[in-house]
Amino acid sequence: KALTRPLAEIDASATKAVSLLRKALGPDYSVEAVDVESVAGAGSMPGQAILSRGVSITHGSQNPQKIYDIFLSGTPAILGRVSNDRFLLDMRAVCDPSDVVPKTGG
Length: 106
Description:
The relative contact order is 0.23. The protein contains 2 helices and 4 strands. A 4-stranded antiparallel sheet has the order 1-2-4-3. It has helices at 7-25, 64-72; strands spanning 29-40, 48-59, 81-83, 86-90. A hairpin with a 7-residue loop joins strand 1 and strand 2 (48-59). Helix content is 26%, strand content 30%. By secondary structure, the protein is α+β, with helices and mostly antiparallel strands.
């Protein structure tokens, strides 16, 4: 289902996640919705890039790996990726935007 999810629906989830994350993380973090590419990893489309929407998170004094570690160390862990000096969350497979908000804070 995630592969065929409409981009407008993914964008709406990303926009909501941005609002929730800004509130949870505070003003020291820069949080914005961005274009990303999802990658199908197996099956009939190995390595196929699919346009998606995501959330970019940066911080003036923390490197992206530190932000990645904060999200990964929560319960439940939130898996994103580091790319181009920012932490990214791909929203393609996220149904509830609150699922990408760390429960341990920032």
